[in-house]
Specification:
The protein has helices at 8-18, 31-39, 44-60, 67-84, 87-103, 106-122, 126-138, 143-156, 160-169, 176-188, 192-209, 212-229, 232-245, 250-263, 267-278, 284-296, 300-314, 324-334, 336-349, 353-365, 369-379, 387-399, 403-413, 417-420, 422-429. The chain is an all-alpha fold. It is globular. The protein starts with 7 loop residues before the first helix and ends with a helix.
Length: 431
């Protein structure tokens, strides 16, 4: 879908063929499937990571530079971030990886540089990651391992020819790491069925190896793709499988909460899951979702309270650019100029259609309708068919009186109610 070339009508045809609609309207969630995971130890993974951190910290000692201990210590900090959401842990991991690079030999530095690059990717510092990886790649390095990460980064910053070149170089349909990347590439191209097909093959490999980490990652990610396809039942089942493998997996619980909200409009039960997560995993994302659900219920006071809680957390300088896209969508309503500044920064960091449609949205909110149209025409139209990008494109077209294009995009967006969510979907019906 994303590689639409001829016209918006071709884009509509592709959307119709692949679809974002709900494939199983009769499907409903069953609280018995996931409530037991709410009763499981909510911080088991965090506790295990904390023990790892303490063990490796003691091994190092206050002034030690033991290279062999620095990697596991940084890894423990990374796990602590994943399981708690505390951004300080991610920054701690960054410091340890940098120290490891400084004190290790050139040959050993390569592995630490890749680990630091992964840390940068999590922080959305993609250009820093690319600089580090390209430097390492030019020297003594594990070329294949570095190519995998370079592909990820090039895709994130819109360097699609470079990403495709690497993908062809690493092609091996029997290798897990290749399969998940060809899956990402297929998603970028709008080939959602192929995306899921490759992910299913990757999952089969993870299962054949009985590799718990890969099984958890693949199940949770394929759940997302099934959701994009509109197969909510399959999406839900993979989230449940993820929780069966790791009962405190926050991302899977949030995915189920989205199903409860977006498909079933069961705000009460969705909030049970989100509030459960907030007790030990205090991410800004959760307050955004609570704000959206409160707005859908017509409670503007609560919605504003949750939005303020989001900004209180997301404005922590340690987050850097990690929440720019979320901030832009919120600020267009209250501070269009700040939204415009952030959108320009995001485009500078990641010049992709996904960044440009947010820039157009901010330009539109700043009353610069012609500039917003130029942005959509030059950088978004025909380059992506993600529902949010199409929605913002339609809003820009409407502001410029291009009602024919609005009608085409509105028709294309009608099946996207699940992916957009019922509150955002109101904007589709208002086109």
């Amino acid at each position: 879908m994303k590689n639409v070339i001829a016209s918006m009508y071709l884009g509509l045809l592709l959307l119709s063929c692949n679809g974002h609609g709900d494939k199983d309207l009769a499907f409903t969630t069953n609280p018995a499937h996931y409530t037991s995971f709410l009763q499981a130890d909510p911080i088991k993974s965090y506790t295990e990571a904390l023990k790892e951190k303490e063990f490796w910290s003691k091994r190092l000692g206050a002034d030690s530079t033991g290279v062999g201990d620095l990697g596991p210590l940084a890894g423990a900090y990374s796990k602590l971030f994943e399981t708690s959401g505390d951004i300080q842990y991610l920054k701690d991991a960054e410091k340890v990886y940098k120290k490891a690079i400084t004190v290790s030999s050139i040959k050993i530095q390569d592995g630490y540089k890749r680990a630091l690059a992964k840390n940068y990717i999590t922080q959305h510092r993609f250009k820093d990651a690319i600089t580090l990886l390209e430097e390492s790649y030019a020297g003594i390095s594990n070329k294949h391992a570095t190519e995998l990460l370079l592909f990820d980064c090039y895709l994130e910053v819109g360097a699609y020819p470079r990403a495709e070149k690497i993908l062809k170089k690493i092609e091996n349909t029997k290798q897990y790491n290749y399969l998940i990347r060809i899956s990402k590439w297929s998603d970028h191209k709008g080939q959602l069925s192929a995306t899921i097909g490759y992910m299913e093959k990757a999952l089969a490999i993870a299962n054949s190896r009985n590799n718990l980490a890969l099984q958890i990652w693949t199940n949770s990610n394929i759940a997302d793709y099934y959701g994009h396809q509109g197969d909510i039942k399959a999406s839900y089942n993979h989230y449940i499988k993820t929780l069966a493998l790791q009962p405190d997996h926050a991302y899977a619980k949030k995915g189920i909460a989205w199903i409860l909200y977006s498909k079933e409009h069961n705000i009460t039960q969705a909030c049970v899951l989100i509030d459960h997560l907030l007790t030990n995993h205090n991410l800004p994302d959760y307050y955004l979702l609570k704000a959206e659900m409160a707005s859908y219920q017509g409670d503007s006071v609560k919605s504003q309270e949750y939005m303020q809680q989001f900004f209180t957390l997301a404005n922590n300088p340690l987050y850097g650019d990690m929440y720019n896209t979320h901030k832009i969508k919120a600020l267009v309503k209250t501070d269009p100029q700040q939204a415009l500044q952030l959108a320009q920064r995001e485009v500078d960091n990641r010049p992709t259609p996904q960044s440009y449609h947010l820039l157009a949205l901010a330009q539109l909110a700043s009353k610069d309708t012609q500039k917003a149209l130029t942005t959509i025409t030059d950088f978004v139209a025909g380059k992506t068919s993600e529902p949010m990008a199409l929605l913002h494109s339609a809003q820009v077209y409407k502001a410029n009186g291009m009602l024919g294009k609005v009608a085409v995009l509105k028709t294309a967006l009608l099946p996207a109610s699940y992916e957009l969510g019922p509150e955002i979907y109101k904007q589709v019906t208002a086109l």
